[in-house]
Design a protein that fits this description.
heterodimer; A: 255 residues; alpha/beta; 6-stranded mixed sheet; 9 helices; globular; B: 357 residues; mainly alpha; ABC transporter involved in vitamin B12 uptake, BtuC; two-stranded antiparallel sheet; 17 helices; 2% strand
Chain lengths: 255, 357
C-alpha cells in the first residue's frame, strides 16, 4: 500500500465544553477517494476546516506527506497542496467568473506579488484559467460577475476554483448540494476524472448514497465528532452501526 | 480578452482626461494666484485620495491614519528646509526621512494589528494619528507647535526666478504668463502627482492589484486559495503610507508652510474620506473626480453663494439662505444628495451605466 499523503492524528477541537471533533485519526492515500459521511452536526465540515486550516486544532496533528501543518495558516497549507471547496458557496462575488479562476491559477503560479506588469499581459494565467472554465463548462459565463450566476453555476465555479489550485489533496464539501439534476453530473464527472490520477487524494463529504456508491473507494463515518467506522463502501453501508446513526437510533453510548 | 468598456466608463475616462489636460495647462488657463493654489491642491489631493482608495476601496482596509503619513512627509520636508536652508538636498533628505518614518510606523501598525478585526484596526490607526498630532504640537522646537513652520523653498521656485529670458534679460512670457519660479513650482507639483498616480494605477492593474480586490471581496477564500492575506494587507498599507508621505513632502515644498492644519489635522482625514466616497471607492478615477469636486467646492462655493446672494438681494429669505457664511450647510446638503443619487460614488455609479455583457 502507498504511503499516506494526508494524515490526521488524534485531531480534536473544542468549542467551550463542546467537542466538535474528537481524536479523529485517519490516513488518506493518493489515488484513493474517501467519502466522509455522518448525520448533520457530526463534525464533517469542522474536520475539513481543521485540515485546511480555517480552524486551529485544540490538539492533535495534521500531516501532509510527513510535514506537520498543524500550526500553519490556510494559505500556507494551500501552498503545501491542500485544496478545498466549500459547502456554502464562497466566491469573489463582484469579480467575473474568469477573474475568480485566474486568482486561483495566479496563486498556484506564485505570481501574486508581481506589480510591474498589468495582469492582462500574463497571458499564461488567463489561458490556464480558460482551460479550467472549459473543463467545468463555464466558458460562456466567463465575463459574468460571480454574484450574478444561478446557484448551480456558482457551485460549479466553486469546484472550478478548487480545480484551478491544482492541489494534491482535493476536499469537496457536498459539491452537488442544491444542484439540479442536469448540473450535478458535470461536477461528478470532474471528480471521477480527478480520481483517475493516481497522484491525487480526494476527500468527499456527501449525503447522497448513489454518489458515494459510484465514486468512493472507502468510507469513514463520523458521529458526534468521533470516527465511528472506516472501511470499504460495501462493508460500511451494510453495517448496523451506520444504519443506526442515519436512522437516528444511535445512543450516546455508541458515540 | 479584455472586457468591453461601458459607455459610462468611457464617459468617466474622457472626464478624467479633460481634468488632466486642465491641470496640465492650469497656469496658462487660469491666470490668478488663487486658481493656481487650487490646481496644486487638487493635484496633491488626487494622489492622497487615490492612495487612500488603495486601502479602503481596493483592499477594504479602514484607516484613519492617512493624514498622519501625509504629515510625516510634510514635516520631514519642512523641518529639513528650515534647518538646512532652502536646497534640493534638504528636500530630498526631508522627503526620505518622512518616507522612512512612514514606512517604519506603517510596518509596525500593520504587523501588530492587521490580523485583528477591521474595527479594531481602525481604532488603532485613530490612536496613532492622535499621538502624531499631539507630538507635532508638543515638539514645538522642531515643528513650530500649533503655529507650524514657515521656510523657503529651493531657489528655482522663487517667484523672482527667471526660467527663460529674452535678449534683454527679461523673463519670457507665454500666453501672457511669466515663466517664473511659480510656474516651475506648479509643474514640480503636477509632475510629482502624475508620477505617483501612474505608479498607483499600475499597481491596481497588476496581479497584486487583483489579489487586493480578492481580499476585499472574500478574505477567507483569498487565504484558502493560497494568498497570505496579512502580508498583502501590510504591503498595501505601507505602499499607500509611502505615497501619502511623498505627496506631503511635495505639498510642503509648494506651500512653504507646514502646520497641523495643512498636514496633520483630522479635518484633512475627513476631507479625504468625503472625496473617496463622493468620487467612488475601488476605482482610481473616483479619486480624481472626488478630489476635484471637493477642493473646488471648498474654494469656490462661498464665492458662488456670495454672488447668488447678491443677485437675489430683492427676494425675501433667499439671500439669507445663500449667505456665504452658510457654505458648510450647503456643502452638507450637496454631499447628502450625492450619496443618495450616487450610492457608489459619482464614478462608481456612472461606470455601471450602459453596461455591456
Amino acid at each position: 500500500m502507498t504511503t499516506p499523503s494526508l494524515e490526521t492524528r488524534d485531531l480534536t477541537i473544542r468549542f467551550g465544553g463542546h467537542v466538535a471533533v474528537n481524536r479523529v485519526s485517519a490516513a488518506f492515500r493518493p489515488g484513493e477517494l474517501t467519502a466522509i459521511v455522518g448525520p448533520n452536526g457530526a463534525g464533517k465540515t469542522t474536520y475539513f476546516n481543521l485540515i485546511s486550516g480555517q480552524l486551529a486544532a485544540s490538539s492533535g496533528q495534521v500531516l501532509k506527506d510527513g510535514t506537520d501543518l498543524t500550526g500553519m495558516a490556510p494559505s500556507t497549507r494551500a501552498r503545501h497542496g491542500i485544496g478545498r471547496a466549500f459547502q456554502l458557496t464562497n466566491l469573489f462575488p463582484a469579480l467575473s467568473v474568469l477573474e475568480n479562476i485566474r486568482l486561483a491559477v495566479q496563486a498556484r503560479a506564485g505570481e501574486g506579488w508581481r506589480i510591474l506588469r498589468p495582469v492582462g499581459r500574463f497571458g499564461h494565467l488567463t489561458e490556464a484559467a480558460e482551460r479550467f472554465l472549459e473543463a467545468t463548462r463555464l466558458t460562456h459565463l466567463a465575463h459574468q460577475p460571480a454574484a450574478a450566476l444561478p446557484h448551480g453555476d456558482q457551485r460549479k465555479l466553486e469546484v472550478a476554483l478548487l480545480m484551478a489550485m491544482e492541489p494534491d489533496i482535493y476536499m469537496f464539501d457536498e459539491p452537488t448540494a442544491g444542484m439540479s439534476l442536469d448540473h450535478a453530473p458535470d461536477v461528478l464527472d470532474l471528480i471521477a476524472t480527478i480520481k483517475t490520477d493516481p497522484a491525487k487524494t480526494v476527500l468527499l463529504v456527501e449525503h447522497k448514497m448513489d454518489v458515494i456508491r459510484a465514486l468512493a473507494d472507502r468510507i469513514i463515518v463520523l458521529h458526534n465528532g468521533e470516527l465511528l467506522a472506516d472501511g470499504p463502501p460495501a462493508e460500511i453501508m451494510d453495517s448496523q452501526v451506520v444504519r443506526d446513526v442515519y436512522l437516528g437510533t444511535a445512543t450516546e453510548e455508541t458515540a | 480578452m479584455a472586457k468591453q468598456d461601458t459607455t459610462g466608463a468611457r464617459a468617466v475616462k474622457i472626464a478624467v482626461f479633460l481634468i488632466a489636460a486642465l491641470l496640465l495647462f492650469a497656469p496658462f488657463l487660469f491666470q490668478d494666484v488663487r486658481a493656481l493654489e487650487v490646481a496644486a491642491r487638487i493635484c496633491i489631493f488626487i494622489v492622497l485620495v487615490a492612495s487612500y482608495d488603495l486601502l479602503i476601496g481596493y483592499t477594504g482596509i479602514v484607516s484613519f491614519a492617512h493624514t498622519m503619513f501625509f504629515g510625516f512627509g510634510s514635516y520631514g520636508a519642512a523641518i529639513a528646509l528650515k534647518q538646512m536652508g532652502p536646497g534640493w538636498d534638504a528636500v530630498a533628505l526631508g522627503a526620505l526621512a518622512g518616507a522612512a518614518v512612514s514606512l517604519v510606523v506603517a510596518v509596525a501598525i500593520g504587523l501588530v494589528s492587521l490580523r485583528v478585526k477591521a474595527i479594531f484596526f481602525a481604532m488603532i490607526t485613530l490612536a496613532a494619528a492622535s499621538v502624531a498630532l499631539v507630538l507635532a504640537s508638543q515638539l514645538s522646537h522642531l515643528t513650530g507647535g500649533e503655529d507650524g513652520i514657515t521656510y523657503r523653498a529651493p531657489d528655482l521656485f522663487k517667484p523672482a526666478t527667471k526660467l527663460l529670458t529674452d535678449a534683454d534679460g527679461k523673463v519670457v512670457e507665454w500666453f501672457g504668463v511669466k515663466l517664473n519660479g511659480k510656474i516651475a513650482a506648479y509643474y514640480f507639483v503636477f509632475t510629482s502627482a502624475l508620477i505617483l498616480f501612474a505608479v498607483m494605477f499600475r499597481l491596481t492593474v497588476s496581479p497584486l492589484g487583483t489579489v487586493l480586490v480578492a481580499i476585499r471581496e472574500n478574505e477567507a477564500r483569498a487565504e484558502a486559495i493560497g494568498y497570505r492575506v496579512v502580508a498583502y494587507r501590510t504591503f498595501v498599507f505601507c505602499a499607500s503610507a509611502l505615497v501619502a508621505s511623498l505627496a506631503g513632502s511635495v505639498y510642503a515644498v509648494w506651500l512653504k508652510y507646514t502646520g497641523p492644519d495643512t498636514a496633520l489635522s483630522f479635518a484633512i482625514m475627513i476631507d479625504i474620506l468625503l472625496m473617496v466616497v463622493i468620487g467612488g471607492m475601488g476605482t482610481m478615477w473616483g479619486a480624481v473626480v472626488g478630489a476635484v469636486l471637493m477642493v473646488m467646492a471648498q474654494y469656490y462655493l462661498r464665492d458662488l453663494m456670495g454672488a447668488a446672494s447678491e443677485a437675489l438681494a430683492g427676494v425675501p429669505l433667499l439671500p439669507d439662505l445663500l449667505n456665504p457664511d452658510r457654505w458648510l450647510f450647503w456643502l452638507g446638503i450637496i454631499f447628502i444628495l450625492l450619496v443618495y443619487f450616487f450610492p457608489k460614488g459619482i464614478v462608481g455609479t456612472i461606470m455601471q451605466k450602459g453596461a455591456r455583457t
